Every structure is written in structure tokens, then in C-alpha cells.
Amino acid sequence: MSKIKLFTIGFTKKSAEKFFTTLNQAGVKRVVDVRLNNVSQLAAFAKRDDLCYFLKTICNIDYIHIPKLAPNKDILDEYKKNKGDWSVYEKQFLSLMSERKIEKNMSGNLKHGDCLLCSEHDPLQCHRRLVAEYLNEKWRNIEIMHLM
């Protein structure tokens, strides 16, 4: 099985110019939106419809939203709104991915050059890192590159 180069990126703390330039220079082919809510006003240029347009027009990058790769509302609210503990969030989200069997459901759906998108600037405390690492643990063929 050949290696899949999987990028991850967060859009916060980036201008639109920095965000789209980073994706383009990395050679990203498709952005895989792993946010639960991709139409929030806080997303600015990363709101679903705008993002899809900008990606295609500026960089010729495709876009897909896969909410099954996002935490559910309960897990997200506990962590974000109630200022929950990261280790609890991580454990709950890893359990949810296992329950959802994302390694089977995503098999063949992730491609070389895909980039997991979320809002968090730093991948260390973002579920996109957990998704990438979880899938690599199951598939053993992913090269993960976090774009900053």
C-alpha cells in the first residue's frame, strides 16, 4: 500500500493570504473539512460556501466536508464551552472515532494530498491531529504534515 501524504491546517491566526498560500505551496489537492460547524460567523473566510469558492478559484483545490471526522456536540461543548480537560476530550474523541469505525468508513476516501481542516491554530490540541494519528495507527501508510 503506497503512502498517503496527509496535511492538516487550522485557519485561526492566519490571514486569508497566508492560509491559501500555505495550502497552495504545500501542494494540497483537496481540503477535508473536519469541523462540526462549518458555517459559523467566526470562520470568516473559512465559512463553507466562501471557502469552497476561494479554494477552487485561488488554488484549484477541491473541498469536502466530513462531519463524521468531528467530535459530536456533547464532547465539543464540554471541552470548549465548559473549559474541559484536554485529556478527557482526547479520550472521548478517540473512543468516538473507534465507535464510528472511521478507519473502515474512510478507507479509499482519503487521498494523497488531502488536508484536514479545523479552526485551531496549533495541531497539538486539535482533533484534526487525533484523526490523522488514529488513521495512521490503523492503516500504517500515512505521512502527516501539519501546516502552520
From TrEMBL:
Pfam families xref list: DUF488
Top-level taxon: Bacteria
InterPro entries according to UniProt: DUF488
Name this protein carries in UniProt: DUF488
